[in-house]
Amino acid sequence: xxxxxxxxxxxxxxxxxxxxxxxxxxxxxxxxxxxxxxxxxxxxxxxxxxxxxxxxxxxxxxxxxxxxxxxxxxxxxxxxxxxxxxxxxxxxxxxxxxxxxxxxxxxxxxxxxxxxxxxxxxxxxxxxxxxxxxxxxxxxxxxxxxxxxxxxxxxxxxxxxxxxxxxxxxxxxxxxx
Amino acid sequence: xxxxxxxxxxxxxxxxxxxxxxxxxxxxxxxxxxxxxxxxxxxxxxxxxxxxxxxxxxxxxxxxxxxxxxxxxxxxxxxxxxxxxxxxxxxxxxxxxxxxxxxxxxxxxxxxxxxxxxxxxxxxxxxxxxxxxxxxxxxxxxxxxxxxxxxxxxxxxxxxxxxxxxxxxxxxxxxxxxxxxxxxxxxxxxxxxxxxxxxxxxxxxxxxxxxxxxxxxxxxxxxxxxxxxxxxxxxxxxxxxxxxxxxxxxxxxxxxxxxxxxxxxxxxxxxxxxxxxx
Lengths: 177, 278
Prior knowledge:
By secondary structure, chain A is an all-alpha fold. In chain A, about 60% of the residues lie in helices and about 0% in strands. Chain A has a single domain (about 10-70, about 95-155), classed as Ferritin, core subunit, four-helix bundle (Ferritin, Up-down Bundle), CATH 1.20.1260.10. Chains A and B meet through helix 1 of A and helix 1 and helix 6 of B.
């Protein structure tokens, strides 16, 4: 089954670009919320708190994009028709690398990866689009994401790296005898 | 799917409930929940016209996490319950969800006959090749040499069940495999499965990071199948039997007649209530 996916540079209108940006921010926030909830449920409150913070920033950015879209009619795009390079919204945190005992530094690294991917997406759009207004907006968003990356890098050094046996659980999920 | 009243402008999050899932962090089922709600938003069906029916197991908790009618039913009996519901209320969009143990072992016979009956509903099996809720025993799809459970320290020594080949042989009308690591692709397949008339079988490879942590590797080994969807059962069978279980895509879309019994009211609700009076 060969699927032809739209490239970021093929985004044709400002409305379509903002629909991408809005989904990117909303899905990032939803992802952080979900991981935060799972950490809270599994008794990792410190990391849950961090993910809730990331979620709050995501919602804030989404509302900024929403403001930019005021007066415009954003198109409806099916989840699988977005111009994401690997099919998934680039800032969505990689839930597959989450662990119930993960440390704050690992949570920050996960967010760093997500922010870096968001930056790369906007940078690719800015570099490849032929629409001047999209180029302008994408460059602006790429700079913002670069700033988030820088802030996270600063944040990470304040936390100790995960120890060697960070996932050792003295009371592990029970295995049948 | 028969024509249902359209609902406009609901987003995926409108289909999620306020309950926080208790699945382990990193579990693939989060992603399946996201794919399901995205698909339902795309299908634009009113929430009150959808029912999610499940059996027992980690994945079967999914009705609670949706903002829809749901029934967390009996182990292995989700398909029986869903069949009854769809036959009695053909106007509803019926989604059945569960895991590999629930669907292929405890409910194995219901699975075969649901495929054979071809009632218009979509069955999503979140397959992690393990019984997670009971803490990590081998399931019907566990590889024969999996020796991580204390109950099967030398592996099961039994060939894994081949759900899609069985579904095809038993008469399912739509057969697909997806990967939880591709939520948007899975949403697309679920949408297609719901729209296709008859019994649709969607196997989702959904990693259990707690009891099968090696499944984290699936993100590197699962790939899109190099096939064109066929309506020829023999072609699909040949392809499925040669497949290693890690390819994703829609393998088969058949055209068998859908089971839709003519229903005529034989008793009023008041009469029925009399029969059940204590």
